[in-house]
Amino acid sequence: MNIILLGPPGAGKGTQAHHLVQSRDMIQLSTGDMLRAAKDSGSEMGRIVADVMARGDLVTDDIVIGLIREQLQGAQKGGFIFDGFPRTLAQADALADLLEETGETLDAVIELRVDDEALVERITARSTCGGCGEVYNDITKPWPADGKCAKCGSTDVKRRADDNEDALRNRLMEYYKKTSPLIGYYYAHGQLTSVDGLAEIDAVQAAIAEALDK
């Protein structure tokens, strides 16, 4: 089973992808992770990626599709989760062509639907433990009163520099300009299922599982 996770920054795509990797033995194809791995691999594609990144140029769609092709030709396990790709209609068409070429199918597209104002409130309150990566939230899961991470005991609290309201609203605007048209695209193809991305994590997991098990 191959799926796409859609949703704006901070909607929880990474969290849900990680759960699917653990629960269904799927392989998460994150554009950023693939580029970093390719850069360090020493392969022909890796050398191309390293050269583009060294020049500070944007990685082309053809390069990303090439990296995905390499992954599709490797271990299948429980299928693939496309996380962070496609981002545009042109990329969606390119991915559809690649899947057809490799004999693969796209089985589901899950949209994590969110309310912008609630998302901004949730993300700007987010912090992580510098020791183990445990995620905290000033509103729903505040940092322990004793100043130590409940999971590892670290006192290192980290907040992303772009987890502020202005930066987040800019990222949301970019998403709606470039990526949100994909919702209509996949709806027209009969592949889209929308779930409440602001529900409790377990509830989101259950909704996704229900959509995948239809």
Question: How many strands, which pairing sense, and closed or not: the largest β-sheet?
Answer: 5 strands, parallel
Amino-to-carboxy terminus distance: 12 Å
What is the strand content?
5-15%
Structural class: alpha/beta
Helix content: 40-55%
Query: Which strand order spans the largest sheet, edge to edge or round the barrel?
Result: 2-3-1-4-8
Please tell me how large the radius of gyration is.
Answer: 18 Å
Please mark out the parts with pLDDT under 50 across 5 or more consecutive residues, or reply none.
none
| Strand tally | 8
Count helical runs: 9
Mean pLDDT: 90
The succession of helices and strands, N to C, reads: EHEHHHEHEHEEEHHEH
Coarse shape = globular
Structure description:
There is one protein chain. The protein is globular. It has nine helices and eight strands. The protein is an alpha/beta fold and 214 residues long. Helix 2 packs across helix 3 and helix 6 packs across helix 7. The model has no long low-confidence stretch (mean pLDDT 90).
